[in-house]
What does this fold into?
Amino acid sequence: MTVTTAVTRSADPPRTRVERLADFADSRFGAATAVKAGARKIFPDHWSFMLGEVALYSFVILILSGVFLTFWYVPSASLVEYEGPYEPLQGLVVSESYESTVNLSWDVRGGLFMRQVHHWAALIFVAATVVHMMRVFFTGAFRKPREMNWVIGVLLALLAIVEGFAGYSLPDDLLSGTGLRIASAIILAIPIVGSYLSFFVFGGEFPGEDFIPRLYTVHVLLVPGIMLALIAVHLFLVVLHKHTQYPGPGRTNQNVVGYPLLPVYVAKAGGFFFIVFGVVALMAATMQINPIWAYGPYDPSPITAGSQPDWYMGFLDGAVRTIPGWEVVLFGEWTLSLNILIPALVLPGLMTVVLVAYPWLEQWVTGDDREHHLLDRPRNVPTRTGLGVMALTFYALLWANGGNDIIAHFLNLSINDLTWFTRIALFVLPPLAFLVTKRICLGLQRRDREKVLHGRETGEVYRLATGEVLERHEPLSPEERWLLVQHDGYLPLEPGPATDANGVRRRGARLDGLRHRLSSFYFGDAVPPVTPHELAQAEAHHHALDGHGAAAGNGHPAVTRGGPPDDADGVLARDPSPAGVGSAPGHSGAAQSGEVREGGSTRA
Amino acid sequence: MSRIAPGGASQDEQSDASGRTVAVADAAGLPERFENPGLPEHRPRLADIDRKAARRAELSVAVMFLLSMVGTVVTIVGYFAFRLDEPTSGELAWSNRTIGLGLFLTIFFIGMGAVQWAKTLMPDHEQIEERHSVESTPETKSAAAGILREGVDDSGIRRRPLILGSLAGALALAPLPALVLLKDLGPNPGNKLRETLWGPGVRAIVDPTKTPLRPEEIQLGQIVHILPEQLGIEPDEGRTEGLEYLNEKAKAAAIVIRLEEGEVPAAARAGAYGGLVAYSKVCTHMGCSVALYEQVTHHLLCPCHQSTFDVLDNCRVIFGPAARALPQLPVGVDDEGYLVATEGFAEPVGPSFWERGDT
It folds into this structure.
C-alpha cells in the first residue's frame, strides 16, 4: 500500500473567506491578473457617454422582460375561441398568439406591466441607439482606430429595427397584422424571386399559420443572439481602444482623464442601469402602450384609419407614402414595383451603405489617417456637422411623412398637399440644412476666435473722458482658452500634378482631382484656431487701448472694442497665416482709430 | 497625409501623457500652438471638507436605499391585493400601477443611491491613464507574418494547387444543401396569387355579418363590404372545410357600391348591375384594405399609404404610391335575387409581383 504524502500547500495559505474565494477565482481563471489590469481602468466622464449606456441597459431590460413574456406567450397562429375576461372579445375566433398575449395582459399579475416594460424598453433601445450614433458621428468618434466599431454599431441599429418589428408583429393583433401584410408585399416586390420568397417565408400564402412561430424563433433567438455577440464585440473594442474623451485642459490624444472603474464607475454605471430600468418601470406603470385587446385580432378585411407603426419604422412608412405610383412592366411580362422597391429596399440599403462607408470616405477626402482619441467639437468640423444635419433632415422629413394622415387630421391640412410638400422638401430642405448648419458652425468658430483674441464680454460698459464708450473684456484663463484653441486647423489637400515627368497624363489624376475638389469642399472655408502669435498681436493693441482706459481712471485693463472681426475672418479663410490677421483692414483699422461702432455689442 | 494649417502641427508629436504640450517655438519666440495647460486644480466638494455635509450625503444615500425597500413592499402588497380573477379594466389598471410603481421605487432608488454615493462621497480626483496605440511594433508584425508564412508553407498549399482548387470547389458548393433544405419552408406560388374564391355564381355575403345580400338593400351612395359565400363559416372551421380561411379572405375581400346608373363609368358597365359596382378591397400597392370611402367625391382611400382610387373612373389611382386600379368584380343576381359574382376577377388582386406582367 502506497501512501501519498500531502501535496505541499502554497507557502502562505489564505485565511479569511474572502481571501479563499479570491484564491479560488485566481487559481482557476487568473482573476488577479484581470483585476490588476482592469479594476482601476480610467473612464472619462460626460453626459453624452451615457447615451450608449442607455441603449445597452435597455437591451438588458429587454432580455429580462422578454424571458418573462415567453413563459406565457404561445407562438401559434392556430385559431381558438377567446373565452377570457375581456368582454368585447368573448366568443371571437382569434389566434393562439393573440389570445395568449391578451391573457398575459389581463390574467397574469404583472403581465401587463412586463409587456409594457418590454415595449417601452424597445422604443427606448432604438432611440438611444440612434442618438448614441448621432453623438458618435458629430464628435468624430468613428475615426481611426474605431471605424469597425462604428460599422458594428450601424449593424446593431439595423438589427434593432428588425428585432423591434418582429416583436410587435408577434401578438398578431389587427395593427401588427397590417404591418406584416406590408412586409409580405415588400417581399413580393423583390424582382424574379419575390413570390417564391414570400411563399417560403410565410409557408404559403399570406398570412398562413407558419409565420408566427417562425418569427418567434427569429425574435427570441436568432436576432438577439447575433445582437448579443455584436454588443460583446462592441464593448470589447471600447475597452481595447479605451474610451474617447472630449478635449479640455490636461486631456490629450495620448491619455484618458477620468475616474477609475472601481469604485466610481461601478457605482455610477451600475447605478445608472437601475435608473434606466426604474424609469422604464415608471413608464410601464403609468403609460399604456399597445393595448392589443382594443385593436382586436388580425383579420385581413378590416383596417383602422390613422394606424401608425412603432416610431423607428416611421421613416420607411413615410418613404413608402412619399413615392409616386411608379411601376414598370418589362416586355409585358415582368413587373417591377418601383413604388415599393425604391422606398422599402433601395433607400434603406443606400442609407446603410453611406453610414458604413462614411468613416473611410471622410478619411479619403481629408487625407487624415491618424488615430483620434480626442473628440471633435461639432463646430470645429463644419462640413461633417452640416452633412450630419442634412442626413437627419432627410430622415426627419420621411419620418414626419409617415404620420402625414395624423398631421393632416390635426392641422386640418390636405394630405395630398402634405405628401407633395414632402416630395419636394426631400430634395430642397436637406441641402438647405447643410448650408445653414455649416454657416452656424463657422460662425461659432469665429466667435470662439473672437473670444480668445479679445476675451469674454463682461457687460461692464465704461464711458471715457473723451466721450468714448467701451465694454471691458475679461481675458480668458489658459484653461478656458485651451478648449477654444486645441483643435487642428486643416487646409484642403493639394492635387498632385496632372501629368508625370514625361508629360504623360498620370494614372489616378482624375481621382486626385475629385479628391481635391471634395477636400476643398470640406476645408475650403475652414476657420483656423487662434495661434499664440495672433493672441500676442491682439493683446498688443488691447494695451494700446489701455492708454485710454488708464486716462479714464477706471483701472480695468484689456478694454477692447466689441465689434466683430468679420472682415478679418474673411481674409483668414483664404490666408490663414498670422500675418493675415494683422493686415486685416476692417479690424486693425477700426481699432487703431479708436472708433467704437456699436457700443460694444457683438455681432455673431 | 493630412495637411494641417500653419500653427496646427499634429498633436501627436506635441504632447506628453501628462497633458502638457511641449512647446515648439517660432521665429518670434512664441510657440506655434498654445500649450495644453494641464489638468485644472482639483476643487473639493462640500462633503470633502465639511464633515456635516458628508454625514448628510451619507444619510441621503441611505434614505434612497430605504425607499427601494419600501418599493419592494409596495410591489408585493400590490401583487396580492389585486387578484385579477375576471378583472375589470379598473382592477387591471390598479394592479399594473401598484406593481409598476412599487418596482419603480425598488429599482430606481438603488440606482439613485449608488450614483449619489459616487458623486458625493467617492473620490472625485480626476486620474490620468496613458493610451497606447493598439498597433503592434514592427518586430511583432514581422514575427506574426513569419509565423503565418511558415504555417502556409507547412500546409504545402502553394505547392499543391490541386488541393487548393478542389477545396475551393467543395467550399463553394457546400452552402447549396443548406439552401435546398430550406426549400420546404413553403410551397411554390403556382397560381395561388392569381386565384380567389370568387367565380361565376358565387354569392356575396356581407362582411362581417355573413348574410347574403340583395341588390335592393344597398342604398344610393352606400358601400358594403362583401366576401364570397364560402367564407360564411367561422374562421376555425376553415380547416375542416379544406379552406385556408384567412388566406382566402386576404385575397377575396371586396366592396360593392351603389352609384347613380348614369355615373357608372363606361369601362365598368359590363361588370355592373344597375348602379352596383364591385371592386377588390385589397390595395394594389401593398395589400392593405382600401376601406375608406368618401361618398361625396366617390374616392376610395387606403389608410396605409394614402393611395386614392376614383370609383367614377373605374377605380383608377388618382393619388399615392399605388400604380394600378383596383380590379373590378363583375356582379349580377342569381335566381333567388341575391347578389352574386358573374365571374372571378380578371386579373390578380393585391400587390404586384415579378411574374404578374400585364395580366
